[in-house]
C-alpha cells in the first residue's frame, strides 16, 4: 500500500519516490548513465533520514495535530496485537450495546503481568473506520469501560488505557443515551479504583472523551501526540469566528496541546520518543517503546501503593 | 387640529412610547411576548404569557432560593491566565470585562445557608461570566464547596449554567472535570447528599462531570442540557435536530434527570429532598 504523506512531508515524499524509482531500475538491471545505483540509493536514504529528522524535530503544533491524526499511526488494536499476550477481548455494557471505537479486554502486558486494557481504535480503511465510528465512542463504550474498570478492581488487575480519539461521539443517539453521564461515570469510577491506572495518549487526546480514559496515576504521551479541550478547528471556529488556514494554526498554538507543552504544565508525567519520521514511520519501534514505558510506570505505581487517594490528590491539585 | 392630524397622531405616539419603554420591557425568547420588567421580578424571571423560564442572574437566584442570612464561602483563586492565551482578544482583557460586568471574581458563587430551614452548601455557576465556562477558578469553587460541605456535614447543591470548558485555559480547564469529580466522590463517600439543579444552558465538560454525578438531578423547564452543543451535532450528522432535543423535558423522558421543576416549586422540592435525605444523618 502506498504510504500517506502529510503536506509538510513533501521533501520526504520526493526523496522516497526517487529511491523507489532507482530501486525499480536496479531490479530491472538497468544502469542509469554511469551512476552506481546502489551507492546512489544509499546516499538518498541517508538524506531521507536526515530530512525526516529535521522535519520532525521542528514540528509546529498544527503539524503535530496532523501527525497525531496520521491514518497509518498505530491504532489500539495494533498495540494490543504487538504488546498484549493471550489477549481476550471483552465487549458490551450489559445495558444497550457494543462499541468498537473502544476496545477492551484482559491480557498479559508484554507477557509480564495481567491487566485490563482499554484502547481507542479509529479503524484503518473506510469500512473499518465506519465500524469503529472513527474512534469516537458512544455512551455504551464508556459504560463498557466502567464495567471493565470495576472488573479490574475486583480482580486486582492494573488498568492500561491507550487513548486516541477525536472525542466522544456528538450525535442524537449518544445524547439520548446520556453521553455526559457515561463520561462523568468513567471519571468517577477511575477515581475510585485502588489498582494502578496508567494512560498513554498515543494520538489524539480529544477533550472529555479522552479524559474519560485518562484519569490515571501516570499519564504518558507519545512525542507527537496532542491532548486538548477542543480541536484547533473547533477552537478557531468559536474564538476566531472562522476555521481556516490562518486561524487553525493560531488556535493550535494557543491551546498548548503538544506533549512538550503539557509536560511543562505538569498535566502529563512523561513523553515517549517516537521513531524518526513519527510513529507511522516505524510502528513496531514506536509500540515497543510504549510497551516498555507502560510496564515501568505500572511497576512504579504498584510500588507507591497510593491507591485511589493518591489519584484523587493528583487531580485535585491540577490547576490549584 | 384637523381630523387628519388626529388620525395620524396616535401612531406617532406609540412609536415614541416603545422607544421610551425599551428598558423596562423584556421580550420573551420563547413566545416573543413583551413582559414588564417589574413583573419578571415577581415571576422569578418566568414569562407572564407562556411560563418560559428566562435566564436568571445568579445573585437574584440565590437571594430567592436561600433563607435570609446566608454566608459567602471564600474560594482561593489561582493566578490569572496561565497560558497567556490570546485569540482576537486577550484572555486577560476578557477576564477584566467579565469581572467588571458581574462583580464576581470568576464564573461562580459559593455560599452556605438554608433552604426553608434545611442547611446546605451551594455552588452556583454564573452564566453572565464568560458563559459560566469551567476555569481553574470554577474548579476551585466546586472543590471548595464540596470540602466545605464535608467539613460541616452539609448536603451540597450545585446550580449549573455553563457553555462548557474555558477554552482560554485549554487542557488545564479539561482537567477540572477530573478535579471536580474527585471532590464530589469524596463528598458522596462521606454519605452526604449531592443535588444538582440544572439550568439553561448546561453543556460540555460541566455536564460530563459534576453536573451528572448527583444523587438527585433537578432540571429547570426548557433548559438546554447536553454534552455536545446542538450546532456541533448538526454539523457532524448533517441533519436537523428533532423538536425539543436536549431540553429538560427530553432528558426527563430519557431518564437523565429525576424531575423538571419550575422555579416556583424549587424551594419546596429542595426542602423536602434535603429533609428526607438527611433524616438519618448522625
Quick summary:
The complex is a heterodimer of chains A (320) and B (282). Chain A is of the alpha/beta class.
Q: Tell me what portion of residues of chain B adopts beta-strand conformation.
A: 15-25%
* Major sheet of chain B: 7 strands, mixed
- What is the N-to-C succession of helices and strands of chain B? HEEHHEHEEHEHEHEHHEH
**Based on the structure, what is the oligomeric state of the protein chains?**
heterodimer
Total individual domains of chain A: 2
Determine the N-to-C terminus distance of chain B.
Answer: 82 Å
* Helix share, percent of chain B: 40-55%
Radius of gyration of chain B, taken over Cα atoms and rounded to an integer in Å: 21 Å
Q: CATH superfamily assignment of the largest domain in chain A?
A: 2-enoyl-CoA Hydratase, Chain A, domain 1
**Integer tally of domains of chain B:** 2
Number of strands of chain B: 9
Description:
The complex is a heterodimer of chains A (320) and B (282). Chain A is of the alpha/beta class. Chain A is built from 14 helices and eight strands. In chain A, strands 1, 2, 3, 4, 5, 6, 7 and 8 form an eight-stranded mixed β-sheet that branches. In chain A, α1 runs antiparallel to α2. The longest helix of chain A has 22 residues, at 283-304. The N and C termini of chain A lie far apart (49 Å). The model of chain A has no long low-confidence stretch (mean pLDDT 95). With 282 residues, chain B is of the alpha/beta class. Chain B has two domains: 20-54, no CATH class; 55-281, 2-enoyl-CoA Hydratase, Chain A, domain 1 (Alpha-Beta Complex), CATH 3.90.226. Chain B has helices at residues 3-21, 37-42, 58-65, 91-102, 136-151, 170-189, 204-207, 230-237, 248-253, 263-277; strands at residues 25-27, 34-36, 71-72, 108-115, 118-125, 156-162, 194-202, 216-219, 259-260. The relative contact order of chain B is 0.11. Chains A and B meet through α7, α8, α9, α10 and α11 of A and α5, α6, α7 and α8 of B.
Amino acid at each position: 500500500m502506498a504510504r500517506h504523506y502529510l503536506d509538510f512531508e513533501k521533501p520526504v515524499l520526493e526523496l522516497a519516490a526517487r529511491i523507489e524509482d532507482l530501486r525499480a531500475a536496479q531490479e530491472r538491471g538497468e544502469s542509469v548513465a554511469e551512476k552506481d545505483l546502489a551507492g546512489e540509493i544509499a546516499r538518498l536514504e541517508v538524506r531521507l533520514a536526515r530530512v525526516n529528522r529535521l522535519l520532525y524535530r521542528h514540528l509546529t503544533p498544527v503539524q503535530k495535530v496532523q501527525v497525531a491524526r496520521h491514518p497509518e499511526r498505530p491504532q489500539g488494536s495494533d498495540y494490543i496485537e504487538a504488546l498484549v499476550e493471550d489477549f481476550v477481548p471483552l465487549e458490551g455494557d450489559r445495558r444497550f450495546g457494543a462499541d468498537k471505537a473502544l476496545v477492551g479486554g484482559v491480557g498479559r502486558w508484554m507477557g509480564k503481568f495481567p491487566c485490563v486494557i482499554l484502547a481507542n481504535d479509529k479503524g484503518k480503511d473506510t469500512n473499518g473506520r465506519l465500524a469503529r465510528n472513527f474512534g469516537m465512542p458512544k455512551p455504551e463504550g464508556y459504560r463498557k469501560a466502567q464495567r471493565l474498570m470495576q472488573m479490574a478492581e475486583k480482580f486486582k488487575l492494573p488498568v492500561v488505557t491507550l487513548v486516541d480519539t477525536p472525542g466522544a461521539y456528538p450525535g442524537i443517539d449518544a445524547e439520548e443515551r446520556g453521553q455526559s453521564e457515561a463520561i462523568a461515570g468513567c471519571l468517577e469510577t477511575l477515581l475510585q479504583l485502588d489498582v494502578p491506572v496508567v494512560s498513554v495518549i498515543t494520538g489524539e487526546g480529544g477533550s472529555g472523551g479522552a479524559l474519560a480514559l485518562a484519569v490515571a496515576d501516570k499519564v504518558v504521551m507519545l512525542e507527537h501526540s496532542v491532548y486538548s479541550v477542543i480541536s484547533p478547528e473547533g477552537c478557531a471556529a468559536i474564538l476566531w469566528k472562522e476555521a481556516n488556514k490562518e486561524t487553525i494554526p493560531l488556535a493550535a498554538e494557543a491551546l498548548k496541546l503538544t506533549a512538550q507543552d503539557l509536560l511543562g504544565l505538569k498535566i502529563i508525567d512523561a513523553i515517549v520518543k517516537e521513531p524518526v519520521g513519527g510513529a507511522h514511520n516505524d510502528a513496531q519501534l514506536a509500540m515497543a517503546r510504549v510497551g516498555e514505558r507502560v510496564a515501568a510506570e505500572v511497576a512504579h505505581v504498584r510500588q507507591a501503593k497510593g491507591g485511589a487517594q493518591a489519584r484523587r490528590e493528583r487531580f485535585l491539585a491540577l490547576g490549584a | 387640529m384637523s381630523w387628519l392630524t388626529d388620525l395620524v397622531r396616535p401612531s406617532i405616539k406609540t412609536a415614541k412610547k416603545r422607544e421610551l419603554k425599551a428598558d423596562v420591557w423584556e421580550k420573551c425568547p420563547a413566545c416573543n411576548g413583551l413582559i414588564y420588567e417589574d413583573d419578571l421580578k415577581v415571576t422569578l424571571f418566568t414569562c407572564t404569557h407562556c411560563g418560559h423560564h428566562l435566564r436568571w442572574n445568579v445573585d437574584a437566584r440565590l437571594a430567592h432560593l436561600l433563607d435570609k442570612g446566608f454566608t459567602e464561602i471564600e474560594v482561593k483563586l489561582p493566578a490569572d491566565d496561565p497560558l497567556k492565551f490570546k485569540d482576537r482578544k486577550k484572555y486577560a482583557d476578557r477576564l477584566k470585562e467579565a469581572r467588571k460586568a458581574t462583580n464576581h471574581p470568576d464564573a461562580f458563587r459559593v455560599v452556605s445557608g438554608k433552604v426553608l430551614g434545611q442547611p446546605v452548601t451551594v455552588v452556583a455557576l454564573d452564566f453572565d461570566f464568560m458563559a459560566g465556562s469551567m476555569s481553574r477558578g470554577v474548579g476551585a469553587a466546586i472543590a471548595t464547596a464540596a470540602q466545605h460541605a464535608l467539613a460541616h456535614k452539609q448536603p451540597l447543591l450545585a446550580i449549573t449554567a455553563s457553555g462548557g470548558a474555558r477554552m482560554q485555559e485549554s487542557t488545564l480547564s479539561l482537567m477540572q472535570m477530573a478535579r471536580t469529580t474527585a471532590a464530589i466522590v469524596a463528598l458522596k463517600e462521606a454519605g452526604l447528599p449531592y443535588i444538582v439543579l440544572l439550568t439553561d444552558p448546561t453543556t460540555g465538560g460541566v455536564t460530563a462531570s459534576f453536573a451528572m454525578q448527583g444523587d438527585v438531578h433537578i432540571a429547570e423547564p426548557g433548559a438546554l442540557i447536553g454534552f455536545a452543543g446542538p450546532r456541533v451535532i448538526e454539523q457532524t450528522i448533517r441533519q436537523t435536530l428533532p423538536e425539543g432535543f436536549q431540553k429538560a423535558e427530553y432528558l426527563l423522558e430519557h431518564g437523565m434527570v429525576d424531575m423538571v421543576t419550575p422555579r416556583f416549586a424549587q424551594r419546596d422540592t429542595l426542602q423536602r429532598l434535603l429533609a428526607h435525605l438527611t433524616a438519618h444523618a448522625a
